[in-house]
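quick q for whoever's on today - can somebody do inverse folding on this one?? i tried earlier but teh output was garbage lol. tokens:
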């Protein structure tokens, strides 16, 4: 899954990339209802159970990609820390929502970069041994 995330960050960080290109890099497009709807992807990687590419409003540029790991216990927060560095805790959007952390891996192109946002299930030691239940990889405009 780490390699899938790294490749996805590189793809989303390109200056010119379409949502369809990102979807095709992940697998086969299973559903495309047009620009106002996300692209549902049947992933090529056995590590990914599901993938959805969400477009920027009114364009065919990707805004973010949602990934569901095939095995919810296979991806640990420690594996993400080893691959992408320290994380930032994010506030919960509502009471009872899953805990979320963000990684800013430093993978960037001339105009864009990416952020990896993981929904985590804390383990016995809290976030130290948490597992990742879902991942969102966001395409961000590079500010520097």
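ok took a stab at it. sequence:
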């Amino acid at each position: 899954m780490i390699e899938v995330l790294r490749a996805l960050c590189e793809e989303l960080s390109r200056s010119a990339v379409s949502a369809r290109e990102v979807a095709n890099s992940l697998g086969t497009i299973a559903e495309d209802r047009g620009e106002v709807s996300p692209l549902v992807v049947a992933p090529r990687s056995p590590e990914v159970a599901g993938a959805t590419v969400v477009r920027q409003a009114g364009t065919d540029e990707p805004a973010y990609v949602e990934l569901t790991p095939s095995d919810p216990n296979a991806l640990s927060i420690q594996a993400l820390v080893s691959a992408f560095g320290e994380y930032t805790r994010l506030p919960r959007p509502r009471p009872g929502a899953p805990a979320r952390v963000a990684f800013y891996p430093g993978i960037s192109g001339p105009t864009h970069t990416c952020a990896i946002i993981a929904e985590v299930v804390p383990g016995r030691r809290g976030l130290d041994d948490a597992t990742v239940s879902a991942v969102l990889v966001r395409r961000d405009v590079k500010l520097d």
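fwiw The chain is about 20% helix and 45% strand. also The longest strand covers residues 126-141. so keep that in mind when u check it
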